[in-house]
Amino acid sequence: MRDACLRDASIRHCAGMKIREPIPGAPLPVDQPSIKQSIVHHLAHTRMRDQYRASASDVFHAVARAVRDRIADRWLGSTKSQWDDGKKRVYYLSMEYLPGRLLRDAVLNLGIESEVRGALTELGLSYDDVLETEADPGLGNGGLGRLASCFLDSMATLGIAGTGYGIRYDYGMFRQAIVGGAQVEEPDTWLLHGSPWETSRTETTYTVRYEGRVEPRVDPTGRTFYAWVDTQDVIAEAHDIPVPGYRNGVVNTLRLWSPRPVQEFDLALFNAGDHFGSVHKRNVAENISRVLYPNDSGPPGKELRLRQEYFFVSASLQDAVTRHLARWGSLDDLPEKCVFQLNDTHPALAVAEMMRLLMDEHLFTWERAWSITKRAFAYTNHTLMPEALETWPVHMLDRLLPRQLDIIREIDRRLGIEIAQGHDEQAQARMAIIERGPQPNVRMANLSIVGSFSVNGVSALHTQLLRERMFPELDKFFPGKFKNETNGVTPRRWIQQCNPELAKLITEVVGSDAWVTDLEKLRELEKHAGDSAFLERFRAIKRDNKAKLAAFLEKEHGFRCDPSSIFDIQIKRIHEYKRQLLNVLHVIHRYQRIKAGEKPEAPRTVIFGGKAASAYDMAKRIIHLINHVAKTINEDPEAREHLRVFFVPNYRVSYAERLIPAADLSEQISTAGWEASGTGNMKFAMNGAVTIGTLDGANIEIADAVGEDNILIFGMTAEQVIQRVRAGYQPWQLYESDTRLRAVIDGISHGAFSRDEPGRFRPVAQSLLDNDRFLLLGDFASYVETQQRAEQLFRDVPRWTRMSLLNVARMGRFSSDNTIRGYAKDIWGVL
Ligand SMILES: *Cc1c(COP(=O)(O)O)cnc(C)c1O
């Protein structure tokens, strides 16, 4: 039935319904009176509210519906034309998406902002207030999920037929509250008031199976096949969210899966009086998408997580295969018409699942199935941390996904034969998908590399280290497979939407909004780098953004700061390798110098933000320390004139959009060789913040783009880090020999920031002295010096403003449009 439906491109005969008129009819008008009429219509007829009872949420939903109606016309049009032209489709498989609020995004992409604003004004409502009402869908941890959302935006804008597949978590990333300075996790209820953007496709469902046994059987032709029987099944149901391109009429789809039990209700149990038991299966099924794992590096290794991964992989592949068959009638040419991009190894089971679908459901031989599979997948690696490489115990896979494990074993066995020649034992063991030994794990990165035609890193340095340090044997064995695609961010959200005044100025200089889809046009700004009147206008925008942020922080959190101070911002997940603690060491050092009578060259407001994985004790201690250091400094009358510190609670996309346009200094200070790329660094520089950073990840390419005079680089290189560790790194010696460092560490360890409990932060200090895995002490002196230089430069207003302008002007290459063009050309073969 579904096939018949899909095959009939007119969709008019679906489900036996015959509609005589074309749907959609005439597209809805986008003038102000029509939009106003739509808002009123949805208030009354969708929300069923009048002017006396409508709440902020009712108004938001009504506005979102009015906008969505206008997306719907284009969505239907795009779906149909993509079906008709039969272009190659990109399926982006990602466990996480961090789209941020969608109303302003949709309005700007459609180009109807003044109409929506005007309609709301006529109704006595404020557009900005309505925007603030929207919940921020936190379906991701951090950079990886945000990257996926930037990529979907760019694919739609470039007119690529790209679908995102993911999971519709009931509870996304936890909400972070700060209580007594410490992180407390609270549930994120993003769906509490419903989402106006999603459409539930209750008829687009697939069965996802778990557990059971595999039985070899022989078909009537004498061919052996494998039956996966006695499985525990769950239904995956699609929920579609539109992804509009920038003013090009294209609307792609983000399809999120949620589970449903095969059997709603066990009537036999219910009738036997077991009312709770009767819904037990329902609960087991629904638990699959209950919550996002809040780990951003280092897999949780939990069975439920493996269930989640397989759930969305299986549903997504079944969906794509069904569509392909309906459109083309055969799976032989699948790799010519579809490509699946794996966002890290979380969807790596797709390799085994595709083999299963092809062999067990569509009766392909191993050889033909493998030839199709390995030409259909491409894998993006996101980490250089060995402990963050995902592995699953063989015994867990054996119980949960026995058929997929059999397939992985066979892939590994065949790989073993191919690599037996020309590799010693050790090399073979490193290349293998399944570890050797008594309690082996399956290495998902190795599976992804072997099962894909392309493997990419996300910055030049990351790709180099991936090839040289992480997978040297596989790199040599698969020549040309490893490539680089440096990350990027969408200029729609990260300039146009979050920094409207800067966007206006750029539009004026460029002469049109062409820069929004061609970011290299920012270069035009360079022509004005010597024009002091222009620089003053440019500087005024930053000043206004800072004043707005200061007002917000005071209103929302009671934190007061001076908008003329340096806004020095580090916002990202809290992780030891990202070295928020190095920033804290500098803050404490600065504080101690003020107490010793040495005033800084410029007053400074240091802002931190970020969540710590709930089980990551050291990261949580660092948050606690930041808050106590902040309290001590902010309450000290001698210090507060020169230095203030604030930790913004519950950092998320909508918060990033406020903070980034107001930043003077962007902290990108990871230990060189540890950050794969970073994307926060790009958002800041595009908005005119000067980076203080290490030569790590994409910082290297940012330095290359903006020029070494316009960035503050400090610390060891990745190569020097390795050498230093090899030579026997001694944090103790640094502590002994640098009096500044000793004062800072003693302060932490003796309770200068925890007078109520002097030993509270001793473990933090101790970990630096004992091992200091991320070489904070080794980079401390260079960091302090460079911070000093930042203050001097900041005081030289014309110089600083010019640096800031040149950062904006030269960041064009970091548009995700550029990144996606790279993927399209080097990997996907589309465009
Ligand atoms: C961009 C972004 C990140 C990634 O930041 P990095 O500094 O690259 O780690 C994380 N979280 C949010 C909400 C973001 O917008």
From TrEMBL:
**Cellular component GO terms, alphabetically?**
cytoplasm
Question: What EC number(s) does this enzyme carry?
Answer: 2.4.1.1
The answer to keyword Signal applying to this record is no
Task: Name the PANTHER family for this protein.
Answer: GLYCOGEN PHOSPHORYLASE, GLYCOGEN PHOSPHORYLASE, LIVER FORM
Q: Do you know which CDD domains this protein is assigned to?
A: GT35_Glycogen_Phosphorylase (cd04300)
Tell me the NCBIfam families matching this sequence: P_ylase (TIGR02093)
Q: Give all N6-(pyridoxal phosphate)lysine modified positions.
A: K683
What sort of enzyme, by top EC class, is this? transferase
Catalytic activity reported: [(1->4)-alpha-D-glucosyl](n) + phosphate = [(1->4)-alpha-D-glucosyl](n-1) + alpha-D-glucose 1-phosphate
Identify this protein by name.
Alpha-1,4 glucan phosphorylase
Per the UniProt entry, the signal peptide is none
Q: Organism's domain of life?
A: Bacteria
Does this entry carry the keyword Transit peptide? no
Q: Which cofactors must be present for this protein to function? A: pyridoxal 5'-phosphate
Q: Which GO MF terms does the UniProt record name?
A: glycogen phosphorylase activity; pyridoxal phosphate binding
Pfam families xrefs:
Phosphorylase
Which Gene Ontology BP terms does the record give?
A: glycogen catabolic process
Upper lineage: Bacteria, Pseudomonadati, Myxococcota, Polyangia, Polyangiales
Q: Which UniProt keywords apply?
A: Carbohydrate metabolism, Glycosyltransferase, Pyridoxal phosphate, Transferase
Which InterPro entries did the record assign? Glycg_phsphrylas, Glyco_trans_35, Pyridoxal_P_attach_site
Q: Which family does it belong to?
A: Belongs to the glycogen phosphorylase family.
Q: What does this protein do?
A: Phosphorylase is an important allosteric enzyme in carbohydrate metabolism. Enzymes from different sources differ in their regulatory mechanisms and in their natural substrates. However, all known phosphorylases share catalytic and structural properties. Allosteric enzyme that catalyzes the rate-limiting step in glycogen catabolism, the phosphorolytic cleavage of glycogen to produce glucose-1-phosphate, and plays a central role in maintaining cellular and organismal glucose homeostasis.
Gene3D superfamilies cross-referenced by the UniProt entry: Glycogen Phosphorylase B (3.40.50.2000)
